[in-house]
Design goal:
Blueprint: H1 2-11, H2 18-38, E1 40-44, E2 47-51, H3 53-56, H4 61-67, H5 70-91, H6 95-126, H7 131-142, H8 145-156, H9 158-161, H10 167-182, H11 193-211, H12 216-236, H13 259-282, H14 286-297, H15 299-317, H16 334-358, H17 369-376, H18 383-387
Antiparallel strand pairs: 1-2
């Protein structure tokens, strides 16, 4: 392992900003951990239903503040996408080719997980599983795919939005919420925020790529103003305290993204910018950088299969004589939370199995395998991103 870490470290281009890769890895792992902690599969009368401890324990809302990290992922996406496109243009590379490389990295793993679950759903129905159970599991697996669709759309629009000031999409989110909440307009007005809401951190990342790293004052300003705005909206305007969707709740901060979620995302982006310096210092150690690089190599695989890993453990646990605490029971108390924390290493082990089986769909294996990836210095992105 030490030899692998040294090879990855020595093969990394010296101008690569390792902290950017670390932010992406932290964002993905935050989403995974968040889903595992706030999603509960309850065995009830022979069926499986999906619920959340946030429905029973609203005091756990701060967990969603720490682990709903999508804004950081879009911040990094805007930064990397803008730099990558600029480098492609400098090389004379056609937009279609540039986009094709990036879309393949996103959607090859989607095809794999979709095929596996199509077969699994058919087998479950043939074996007598109830339609509500199958529907609940499919929704749990496929609902996160909205994130990839939005990210793909913003990536494709990078040449158009790279110079867009983040305040413009923020204004769109503000007016959409004003229409649906303040003026009693149709709830459908909020769906424009699915694009506009995540365009805010994406444009912030693009601005970072064009103009260089913002000063620490900018990071502190984003952190303070975003947190103050989000707190004001929650405490004074009736927005939900949870930054993730809660089953049964009348309003969600994510479906579609609300002004509270977007302003909170700005606070997260400010915190991420402040972390860049400490992360750069920490990632000088080959072992730390190797861990970040390996996570980035399989970021989409981890994201797409983490719910399947949790479902597999839950299904295996059904072989027990009685429901297992933290796995099949109603998440209505501190005991469930403690039991769920104990299950996290098991979920991780199941995810490692999924990663071993399906990681090749994210990145086509080149002749020479992993050693060639290391030699070419591509531990965390495609060749186009490496050149960027």
């Amino acid at each position: 392992m030490r030899d692998l870490a040294r090879r990855i470290d020595s093969a990394t281009p010296p101008d690569r900003d390792r902290a950017v890769d670390a932010l992406r890895a932290l964002a993905i792992l935050g989403v995974v951990l968040g889903h595992w902690l706030v999603t509960a599969l309850v065995a009830d009368s022979g069926a499986i239903r999906v619920t959340s401890p946030l429905s029973y324990l609203p005091g756990l809302a701060p967990v969603s503040w720490m682990l709903q990290t999508l804004a950081v992922f879009f911040l990094v996406g805007g930064y990397v996408g803008t730099r990558s496109h600029a480098a492609a243009r400098a090389r004379g590379e056609a937009y279609r080719r540039w986009l094709g490389v990036r879309m393949a990295r996103l959607f090859r793993p989607v095809a794999a997980v979709s095929a596996v679950w199509a077969v699994t759903a058919g087998a479950m129905l043939a074996a007598g599983a109830g339609l509500p159970t199958v529907h609940a599991l499919l929704r749990l697996v496929w609902s996160p795919l909205w994130f990839l669709v939005v990210f793909a759309a913003l990536t494709a629009a990078t040449p158009l939005v790279a110079r867009l000031h983040p305040l413009w999409p923020l204004a769109v989110v503000l007016h959409a919420d004003l229409v649906r909440f303040g003026l009693g307009g149709p709830p459908e007005a909020g769906w424009i925020n699915v694009v506009a809401g995540w365009l805010v951190p994406y444009c912030l990342g693009a601005s970072w790529a064009r103009n260089g790293l913002p000063g620490r004052a900018t990071g502190w300003a984003l952190l303070a103003s975003g947190a103050a705005a989000a707190a004001g909206l929650v405490l004074g305007a009736g927005y939900p305290a949870s930054m993730v969707g809660v089953p049964g709740a009348g309003t969600s901060n994510l479906g579609p993204p609300s002004l509270a979620a977007v302003t909170f995302g700005l606070a997260q982006c400010g915190g991420a910018l402040l972390l860049l310096g400490p992360l750069r210092r920490a990632l000088r150690r080959p072992a730390a950088w190797a861990a970040v690089a390996l996570v980035n190599l399989s970021a989409m695989t981890v994201f797409l299969w983490h719910q399947t890993a949790m479902i597999a453990v839950t299904a295996t646990g059904l072989l027990a004589d009685s429901p297992l605490p933290g796995l099949h029971t109603v998440p209505d108390g501190a005991g469930w939370v403690a039991a769920r924390l104990a299950w996290l290493p098991v979920f991780t082990g199941a995810l490692v199995v999924c990663w071993s089986a399906f990681r090749t769909y994210e990145r086509r294996r080149a002749p020479g395998g992993a050693s060639r990836v290391v030699r070419e210095g591509r531990p965390a992105e495609s060749e186009a991103m490496r050149r960027a």
